[in-house]
């Protein structure tokens, strides 16, 4: 059996951060992955997705300006786009492995299974370590409906050689909205079937309403409170059966995409053997991101039951775990607001409290909510549906929430994040001199 100071399971943003930091401090480190090295974000998530979004943006922008100086709406050649996407993703495993090897980290391929509190099996190898970090991310949740195996997940969507004509998404969160927008801009007819009253749960309801309006305006069909009961294969196509308002319906499709949420990827790890407790949202950890039931084990990233499953948080949590392994438990996870964007056209970006959450907390907030299609930044590109909402504590003048819908919002939200993190008062941010005309210069008009 080989022994290490640290074994990391998972080579994504979280696992990489821990392995590299601990190795840099001179410890012996092994890292394991069951898939090609590099994790979700760079190969199957954020980065390839945003390449596809880049093309969808061109279609959107040219469609908006057709007849206003642009003569033709751009069209997407799906096969070429996927080839372009591959130029980002194909090299990731080799580059990742080379970097780890150069750093002196030992690599193991295969699915890791716990044998005891501090030992792991991967393939035919048995490994032991003083500390083991679980950074295994998430996988699509099981839906328990007949025909579930007919759905494809986001990974396979981004590998499609051809884009089918009619697509249904089961679920109405990030993946549904982003992929529906890409597919619609590439010419497909898309239906989103979402089980709840509000899609994109967690985002401010007024801004989500505006985004839904924008998505419907480009032909995306969105059904709320739809309970998908079965996916059936017919001789030529697929049929998605669902219930809505007490009636039964069926939507025909060439492709059905799983966009109904992801859960901690722990099923095959035999966590029982290590005495590692798992809850509904993933591996249960304390404020130091250490398993409460097995102190040799830490968890970080999407698989841990802390925070949202987003890349910046995975790296942040990885850095906390590395610090605590090297120095004893010192750094704690803080639940600071994190900016996030749904990369639709237009994008929806958000940080902090929604209006509903602020009201529930009884905060004395000043709320500014406005549709901004007649503002210069929107008119210049003829973007038809845009808006913002800001929430400022009336007593402290601190910004407690910002929600932006419109081109550029994915970057502008970071200025709100900086102001909130460093406690810049709303008046001071609103009085900043920003380059004009930019998306950021609109901040001056978004704060009381
Ligand atoms: C389609 C999509 C788009 C996204 N877009 C964004 C975005 O725009 N912005 C954003 O912030 N976030 C986005 N995310 C979320 C983001 O990708 C994740 O939050 C992030 O990648 C999590 O990193 P991680 O290190 O926790 O896990 P991962 O990167 O998922 O790494 C976990 C690794 O563990 C491996 N593994 C699992 N089980 C085992 C086992 N038993 N043995 C060995 N290895 C194992 C897996 O193969 C995987 O490589 C997106 C996610 C998806 C699916
Ligand atoms: N831009 C980004 O940052 C980005 C993009 C993609 C994914 N992600 C991350 O990946 C995670 C997973 O994405 P996702 O879109 O799969 O999940 P999600 O949690 O964002 O949305 C899934 C939605 O589907 C609904 N749903 C669940 N079961 C259903 C069913 N049977 N029928 C109909 N609707 C159902 C849920 O109510 C939920 O609102 C996200 O939580 C996010 O953190 C982030």
From TrEMBL:
<feature type="binding site">
    <location>
        <begin position="171"/>
        <end position="178"/>
    </location>
    <ligand>
        <name>NAD(+)</name>
    </ligand>
</feature>
<keyword id="KW-0520">NAD</keyword>
<feature type="disulfide bond" description="Redox-active">
    <location>
        <begin position="41"/>
        <end position="46"/>
    </location>
</feature>
<dbReference type="InterPro" id="IPR004099">
    <property type="entry name" value="Pyr_nucl-diS_OxRdtase_dimer"/>
</dbReference>
<keyword id="KW-0285">Flavoprotein</keyword>
<feature type="binding site">
    <location>
        <position position="302"/>
    </location>
    <ligand>
        <name>FAD</name>
    </ligand>
</feature>
<dbReference type="GO" id="GO:0000166">
    <property type="term" value="F:nucleotide binding"/>
</dbReference>
<feature type="binding site">
    <location>
        <position position="261"/>
    </location>
    <ligand>
        <name>NAD(+)</name>
    </ligand>
</feature>
<dbReference type="InterPro" id="IPR016156">
    <property type="entry name" value="FAD/NAD-linked_Rdtase_dimer_sf"/>
</dbReference>
<dbReference type="GO" id="GO:0016491">
    <property type="term" value="F:oxidoreductase activity"/>
</dbReference>
<comment type="similarity">
    <text>Belongs to the class-I pyridine nucleotide-disulfide oxidoreductase family.</text>
</comment>
<dbReference type="Pfam" id="PF07992">
    <property type="entry name" value="Pyr_redox_2"/>
</dbReference>
<keyword id="KW-0547">Nucleotide-binding</keyword>
<dbReference type="Pfam" id="PF02852">
    <property type="entry name" value="Pyr_redox_dim"/>
</dbReference>
<dbReference type="InterPro" id="IPR023753">
    <property type="entry name" value="FAD/NAD-binding_dom"/>
</dbReference>
<feature type="domain" description="FAD/NAD(P)-binding">
    <location>
        <begin position="4"/>
        <end position="318"/>
    </location>
</feature>
<dbReference type="InterPro" id="IPR001100">
    <property type="entry name" value="Pyr_nuc-diS_OxRdtase"/>
</dbReference>
<feature type="domain" description="Pyridine nucleotide-disulphide oxidoreductase dimerisation">
    <location>
        <begin position="338"/>
        <end position="444"/>
    </location>
</feature>
<protein>
    <submittedName>
        <fullName>NAD(P)/FAD-dependent oxidoreductase</fullName>
    </submittedName>
</protein>
<keyword id="KW-0274">FAD</keyword>
<dbReference type="InterPro" id="IPR036188">
    <property type="entry name" value="FAD/NAD-bd_sf"/>
</dbReference>
<feature type="binding site">
    <location>
        <position position="50"/>
    </location>
    <ligand>
        <name>FAD</name>
    </ligand>
</feature>
